[in-house]
Amino acid sequence: MRILPCLVMLLCASQQAAAAVQEDITTPPTCGLQCLGESLATSSCSMTDNTCICADAALNKQVTACVERHCSIREQLQMKRYSTEACGVEGEDRRDLVWIIAIVFGLLGLAAFILRCLARLYVTAQTWGLDDWAMSVAVCVMIALSVIAIPLTQHGLGLDMWNVSSDDITAVLRLYFWDEMIYVSCLALTKVSILLFYLKVFPGRTFKFCAYALIALNSVYALSFIFILIFQCDPIPGAWRQWDGEFPAKCISINIIGWTAAAINIALDLAVIILPLPPLLRLSMSLKKKLQIILMFTVGLFVTAVSVIRLRSLIRFGNTTNITQDYVEVGYWSTIEVPVGIICACMPAIRSLFSMYFPKLFGTTKSGTSYPLGSLDGPLQNGNSSRLGVTSNNGRSQIKVKHEWTVVTNMRHDRYSSESALVQEEVQSACRGQSD
């Protein structure tokens, strides 16, 4: 444990001891006092010259090395706290940052899910499916991830480790033990929900095979890393108790677990984003509409960017000497990444809802009549197919709306009644004619 250039005051003199009590300064451990006394013997600083002791970098480096050799981790923390208080060095406090970020982004993710639910209720042909059930579970897990930030900060996450009691350090690590599994579960559930939505939209056999394969990979990813995280230490309580070296446990390097999980998650993110791009690029529609749809599907790149930033923050995760401070960055990037992923997964449904109220931006207008882009509530379903320019060809019809795009779709009523609105009809209809 490194000691800041603040080691001061040799408590051998009664006057200094009395001052320490009056100022409520933590009493340093015996091993720390011995290291300080030995270092002062070869220093130009006197015992009572606190300013000299605090400012002498060489002296503090010497004392630090001695403390690391002869003191336990708990004693090192005690010495660190004593030195910082004695030298008047204020520690960093980022507790508010942790819980505010978690709650704000958690509420944003919840708001996106509520809008998704409203779209299912009020947009005709939007039906509740497996993708919505998966998203419902993901949102419940996200709420748990956001809420857990509050007890984390109450136990000292965001403070310097030497300013946190030993029991609170253990409590923080115990909460992180569960936090990691919640995080992995929510990431996988969000991607599974997106892939289930793809299956409702894209009809190609090859596409469905790839989607099911990615669903399986995400499921294996979640189950595997949950298992690894549970048994990262033998015995299991070592995950939160072996930090001080006093609890005997054999643990897998948390760096290896964290980096591997993050790298695989990024690869799965990219696979989910890239999967729908080829059929989307083949859509027969105006460039403007095509770009709108593609951008909506690729907005998940922002989530991948957050994952990359979080991966960078893991560099110090496993080698930290200041757990309650160095875990902050990993924590708040996790609580950003998960809700943003949920927001991205809810965007198609949100867009269909907004198209009802902002048809000029999100819908299609024909001769003063507005209906959601790709919705089945338009002129076709009302029997006004002549306004769309419908031509029959072997039981299939080619539909043109305002000449903005052309879709090829079956005219079967049962097919229409089962499809979702907005993106589903635009994409599924165009892709069905090109299915394998």
Automatic annotation (TrEMBL):
Q: Which residues form the CFEM domain?
A: 1-114
User: Does Coiled coil count among this protein's keywords?
Assistant: no
Keyword flag Membrane: yes
Write out the residues that bind heme: D49
Q: Which Pfam families match?
A: CFEM, Fung_rhodopsin
Q: Where is the signal peptide?
A: 1-19
Membrane-topology descriptor: Lipid-anchor; GPI-anchor; Multi-pass membrane protein
* Membrane spanning stretches: 97-118, 130-152, 181-199, 211-232, 252-281, 293-311, 331-350
**Compartments (UniProt record):** Membrane; Secreted
Keyword set, alphabetical order: Disulfide bond, Glycoprotein, GPI-anchor, Heme, Iron, Lipoprotein, Membrane, Metal-binding, Secreted, Signal, Transmembrane, Transmembrane helix
Which cysteines are cross-linked by disulfides? Answer: C31-C71, C35-C66, C45-C52, C54-C87
Q: Indicate where this protein is primarily found.
A: membrane
Tell me the protein family, please: Belongs to the SAT4 family.
From the Swiss-Prot or TrEMBL record, give the protein name. CFEM domain-containing protein
Q: Which organism is it from?
A: Phialemonium thermophilum
> Upper lineage ranks?
Eukaryota, Fungi, Dikarya, Ascomycota, Pezizomycotina
